[in-house]
Design a protein that fits this description.
three-stranded antiparallel beta sheet, five-stranded mixed beta sheet, alpha+beta, about 45% helix
Length: about 425
């Protein structure tokens, strides 16, 4: 009997030694999780297969339109089901999703490698991990600046406006600056980075809108529009439309998404080799900060496989995978170490101050993105749209914006 048991023990030891670490011996032992993500963030089948072989976790990708994700999560929550174990979490959804109980806390050992991680945290607890980078960069067309014989040092908004006036008067470009002024989300995010970069604050510690910062930012809007330095047709724009003039050669200066750099340097760009990146202008000199608006992933608190979901999230946002996703999808890394590496390798043309700015990211929200962000955003962009259409002065707009935003804050206490 002892001999038989020894033989069995030997066989068991042999079996365990021939199974590679991180894989499973039987197909039924493979853990399956669902990953709901827009097409732009979906890993290739090759990448997913590599992860499955390493971890024993099979990931079923559920390609889902960005606009549909919130609804699918809400419907699943109402029915006490799980829409997906891991899913897309836009920066603007974090507070709402946490408040609704749709996100599980996440602990990361290397959180310092993500400069914008605080945007996926509420009161210092992390609920999502960013995977696609998007932060604001200054862009100027050096050919236009040279043609207008103006100083390329646009370190403050006073300097930007002075330069823009010169370029317009010289006939170099009709609308030297382009900013979003439509009744839409891009207008809100523009207000956020403008107020933050000039004042270092947007919202007070109690969540209310800082009145001085609001008036300061809206005064810049007003001066740009009063002097016809911005195309007022932007009130009817959407999406990337208000940023595209720098790509099409129709604007001399834009503060826009980091992804614009790949567009201005693209093969089809009308300004390839003409556009340089700069730090964001501040009040008197360059701003020490920029703002980011990134895409992330989160984990359902009701998943049946929390360990597998967390392992996948860590793999999906790991340095190796972020580098692969950049190569395969063009997804700009959110890890500063990976971004620096691909810039050093020359994979991003004319990167300029990109990596410097990536390390200067700060959040305008002192305690994380609030649950009522969507409602508050509408108040912000609607007021700016009224300013752009001449219905309000900067002072009137600031007063109305502060009143409306603070009512939203008070109603959600």
């Amino acid at each position: 009997m002892k001999k038989i048991m020894k033989c069995l023990a030997a066989l068991m030891l042999l079996f365990t030694t021939i199974v590679p670490f991180g894989t499973t011996a039987h197909a039924e032992e493979i853990v399956e999780i669902n990953f709901m993500i827009p097409d732009w963030g979906a890993p290739s089948e090759e990448l997913l297969k590599e992860f499955e072989e390493q971890s024993g976790i099979k990931v079923n990708v559920l390609p889902t339109a960005w606009d549909d994700i919130r609804d699918k999560l809400a419907i699943a929550a109402a029915g006490n089901t799980v829409a997906a174990d891991v899913f897309e979490v836009d920066w603007s959804w974090v507070g709402e999703f946490v408040n609704a109980g749709w996100l599980a806390p996440i602990e990361l050992e290397d959180a310092d490698d993500f400069p914008a991680l605080s945007q996926f945290a509420v009161d210092e607890t992390v609920y999502g991990v960013p995977y696609a980078n998007d932060f604001r960069i200054g862009y100027y067309n050096k050919r236009m600046f040279n043609e207008g014989e103006v100083d390329e040092s646009v370190t403050s908004w006073d300097k930007v406006i002075e330069t823009a006036k010169t370029l317009k008067e010289a006939g170099v470009v009709e609308y030297p600056v382009s900013i979003p002024i439509e009744a839409g989300e891009n207008t809100t995010t523009t207000f956020l980075w403008l107020a933050l970069s000039r004042n270092g604050v947007v919202f007070n510690e109690d969540g209310t809108l800082n009145a001085e910062a609001a008036l300061d930012a809206l005064t810049v809007y007003e001066e740009l529009m009063t002097n016809e330095l911005v195309d007022l047709g932007n009130v009817n724009s959407s999406g990337y439309d208000s940023f595209m003039p720098i790509v099409n050669g129709d604007a001399a200066f834009v503060v826009g998404p980091s992804g614009l750099l790949q567009m201005v340097e693209g093969e089809d760009s009308a300004v390839k080799g003409e556009v340089e990146t700069v730090l964001l202008p501040g009040k008197e000199t360059t701003s020490p900060v920029t703002a980011s608006f990134q895409e992330g992933v989160g984990i359902s608190p009701n998943t049946e496989h929390p360990e597998a979901a967390l392992e996948f999230v860590k793999w999906y946002t790991s340095p190796e995978t972020q580098a692969r996703l950049f190569d395969e999808l063009g997804s700009l890394p959110t890890r500063i170490s990976v971004l620096e590496k691909i810039v050093e390798e020359g994979k991003i043309n004319n990167a300029g101050v990109m990596t410097e700015l990536a390390g200067m990211i700060e959040s305008p929200f002192p305690h994380g993105v609030p649950a009522y962000y969507t409602e508050m955003s509408a108040e912000i962009y609607n007021v700016i749209n009224q300013l752009a259409t001449g219905k309000l002065t900067a002072e009137e707009a600031a007063e109305q914006m502060v009143e409306n935003v603070n009512k939203v804050v008070e109603a959600n206490k």
